Amino acid sequence: MSAVPRLTRRDVLALAGGAAAVALLPGGIAHAGERRHGMSIFGELKYAPDFTHFDYVNPAAPKGGTFSQIGPTAAFNASFYTFDTLNGYVLRGSAPQGLNLIFDTLMARAYDEPDALYGLLAESVEASADGKTLIFHLRREARFHDGTALTAEDAAFSFMLLKEKGHPLIAQNLREMESAKALNPHTLEISFTGNQTRDLPLFIASVLPVFSKAYYAENDFSASTLKPPLGSGPYRIGDFRAGRHIAYARVEDYWGRDLPVNVGHWNFDRVRFEYFRDRTAQFEAFKAGNYLFREEFTSKVWATEYNFPAVRDGRVKLMTLPDETPSGAQGWFLNMRRAKFQDRRVREALTLAFDFEWTNKNIFYDIYKRTESYFENSPMKAEGAPSAEELKLLEPFRTSLPDEVFGPAVTPPVSDGSGQDRRLLRRAAQLLDEAGWTVQGGKRRNANGEPLTIEFLDNDPMVERLTAPLVKNLRLLGIEANTRLVDSSQHQQRRDNYEFDVMLQRYSLGLTPGIEIRSYWTSEFAAVPGGRNLSGIADPAVDALVEKVIAAETRDEQIVAARALDRVLRASHYWIPQWHKNLHHIAFWDKFAWPETKPKYTRGVLETWWSDETKTGLSGAKD
């Protein structure tokens, strides 16, 4: 089982789109004709075939107790704060969080490796020489909760059903899965068209659930329903009330309990998600002990409101956990389809006008860090001067690239924190003058007398307070800057058609970037309506380096190519980078214990923590 939630929009979008083939071999998912106990993008596996458990669990963790938290979102189709169906794999209705707990997958993630999977339903996997076929060998002991055998026929049925009738985001990603069929009760063959991304086999093996074919012969898969489905995983659905709460009960005789991928996992007897329609009510319910665990995402609340009595007397604990997953690239993206942004000096001047240090201190309580890279918080972030390997990729484009690409990686300036750093604003003014935007009558104008105007487009009133300090500094420079708030539908329409000057965006990148990065930065997608290349980047060097990242045959090669790409993107100033937080701020009633080692690439709380019987006497928290 992978981390909750297993089936997320990010999982699917990260694998979306693209037509070029990426072979599974050589060296990748598996070796031709060789049965392996696991697989990864580049074939790297930390754990040997005889491993007994992952290093980040306590194999002797006791079972029992309750874990509870709020359940704001589900897999694909959840509205915030509610649910009205128990079918989370079709478009209809809003499903609750945690449905992945009742279903098993072919393989399970190891969260101390970038993308490695190990056998769950499948004990081993092998690939054909051309990489177009994978054979999964299923465990004979696999069972559904009703005691019936789980077979390759169920898996083949499930994947073809999801391709035909599943949520569009699932079906879209299964386009290059040509077929899934059972060769015998315990052997599953999955065939690909040859145009699949190298991520697709991992998506199928670790994200897609295996359903009971017999169950859906009698139940409509496409229906929105509150009838609990038949599963095979460590939990089954317990009591629930649509839109209010849902509980999952641990399956005592779970068939896979002692598998290496499950040892030390799934220790709570009961897992419960509470739903609230109001954020204030959510927090007050936690303070009252109506649920036990909370991750805080609002910096002001974390800094100022966790001082209630249960925190002061130790009944509620506060903890900060490292988040070592890529933070993604968040910033204000400049639309280079507009002539005023074509000059790199103009774009750099806008970056100089943003005082992150003031914003972090006065709005974020110094909780955030400045984002510098498109690959922030990952080994692919470029730092210092380029290596010899990076230079080899960059040299063919030297004459067309900024000189800064070949020096220390470009980073945003550090201000004096005043909100109006005169040194940085003087440099910004100089760049604007050099670009031909001079002050005429108090306004920045070009040679034709046209004013430099910039509109920040958004649909969230809360964002305006973040943009306002930047707008103020741009006006000091003589730029006619303003924020335009529109409704969600107009915002989407203008985004899809690139009818904006500047727009806030966050790109979420995985530990092993795939074909999806073409849609972020390449010429091919610069004019595609509804695309992700918001800035309209169309640079042959970027195009070439993106292909190097995608085609890399080893992780080291991919890191080198990504760093070279990062240098080019950053030196071109296509965005005003914002901020990130590589930490989890969590609060919980003092009823839990946890392993000595946290899984590197996930929070790991629900999966690996357990109830501590020595702490259950503390008052104020409710099971």
The CATH H-level homologous superfamily of the largest domain: Dipeptide-binding Protein, Domain 3
Low-confidence stretches: 1-27, 73-80
The best one-word shape is globular
Structural class: alpha+beta
Report the end-to-end length measured between terminal Cα atoms: 25 Å
In percent, how helical is the residue content?
10-25%
CATH topology of the largest domain: Dipeptide-binding Protein, domain 3
Walkthrough of the structure:
- The chain has 623 residues and is α+β, with helices and mostly antiparallel strands.
- It folds into two domains: 9-44 and 66-277, 3-Layer(aba) Sandwich (D-Maltodextrin-Binding Protein, domain 2), CATH 3.40.190; 329-580, Dipeptide-binding Protein, domain 3.
- 25% of the residues lie in helices and 19% in strands.
- α9 (344-352) packs antiparallel against α12, α11 (388-394) packs across α17 (555-571) and α16 (540-551) runs antiparallel to α17 (555-571).
- The radius of gyration is 26 Å and the shape is globular.
- It starts with 8 loop residues before the first helix and ends in a 12-residue tail after the last strand.
- Residues 1-27 and 73-80 have low confidence and may be disordered.
